[in-house]
Design goal:
Elements (H helix, E strand, L loop, with lengths): L2 E7 L3 E6 L4 E6 L2 E4 L4 E4 L3 H18 L6 E4 L4 E5 L2 E2 L2 E8 L2 H7 L6 E11 L8 E2 L1 H7 L4 H23 L3 E13 L2 E5 L7 E5 L9 H4 L5 H13 L1
Antiparallel strand pairs: 1-2, 2-3, 3-7, 4-5, 6-7, 8-12, 9-10, 9-12, 10-11, 12-13, 12-14
The chain binds adenosine-5'-diphosphate (ADP) and uridine-5'-diphosphate.
Length: about 230
């Protein structure tokens, strides 16, 4: 597989074309941003952990009936994926109140929710990724009714599978963000699942093992990513 021109450089990854029109190479960087790019920094070794963790998690989901973009890990930071047309939505699933949910609704961080919550944000940096509901998504035409139903169903299934996966490794899955893309007439899981995109708490101490350590200047950022990696690979 030959790596060709860079298609896109995002905040955390670069995306390259390949000599196969249906495949892309994603390259994970150590760059970290928060608050829509306002806070910038770098987390040493993050790109390697996020690449390898995403691939392990995507393989686990595939084994359990969730189709993903994963094709082949090419190196520490690079993975070959199916080229999809990204549905411009950040799909957020929550099990426990935290972050913007706690702030918006005045629900204490750490409170267990009575049911899992799906939220959507319109993936649009210029607009600051505003929250959007399903009727608004359909009204603008960001996704079809069928696609939205499929995304929601898959998101809840992924949540159940991931909750179980992390709990067995001593981690509580508080919330996470996923993205989907169109591929061969279906919407499949794309992008990444990592400590950048999930809130992961130690299930005994509630210690934060994710990007909130960077967002909130809690220190021990690299160590938290390494701890998640250690628990996944032992
Ligand atoms: P951002 O765009 O938010 O800064 P990244 O730095 O992670 O995010 O950039 C990766 C980009 O690649 C994202 O826009 C993501 O939606 C997109 N992407 C992820 N997986 C695929 C895929 N399989 N095919 C096409 N685009 C993808
Ligand atoms: N998230 C993400 N990318 C974003 C926004 C959120 O990966 O652009 C993840 C975040 O890591 C958390 C979940 O989505 O696991 C919910 O985030 P929230 O809405 O609470 O936003 P935040 O508090 O990060 O602003």
């Amino acid at each position: 597989m030959e790596k060709l021109a860079m298609l896109y450089e995002g905040k955390a990854k670069k995306v390259f074309e390949t000599d196969d029109k249906s495949r892309l190479i994603v390259e994970y960087k150590d760059d970290a941003t928060a608050f829509n790019g306002l806070k910038k920094g770098s987390i040493l070794g993050k790109g390697i952990i996020n690449n390898k963790m995403t691939n392990i998690v995507f393989k686990y989901l595939e084994e359990n009936g969730v189709e993903t973009h994963f094709v082949e890990e090419l190196g520490d930071r690079q993975t070959l994926v199916k080229k999809v047309e990204i549905v411009p939505l950040e799909v957020i699933v929550r099990n426990i109140a935290a972050g913007s949910f706690s702030n918006k609704f005045g629900v204490e961080e750490g409170k267990e929710l009575l049911n899992p919550v799906i939220e959507f944000s319109y993936k649009n940096d210029a607009l600051g990724d505003p929250m959007i509901n399903d009727m608004q998504i359909l009204a603008i035409g960001l996704a079809s009714k069928e696609e939205l139903a499929s995304v929601s169903k898959q998101a809840l299934k992924i949540n159940e599978l991931l909750k179980d996966y992390f709990f067995k490794r001593g981690i509580t899955l508080v919330d996470f963000k996923i993205e989907f893309g169109r591929y061969n007439g279906k919407v499949i899981l794309a992008d990444e699942i990592s400590p950048d995109t999930c809130r992961l708490w130690d299930n005994k101490t509630n210690e934060k093992l994710d990007k909130d350590r960077f967002r909130r200047d809690l220190g021990g950022v690299e160590e938290a990513y390494e701890e998640v990696w250690r628990r996944i690979t032992i």
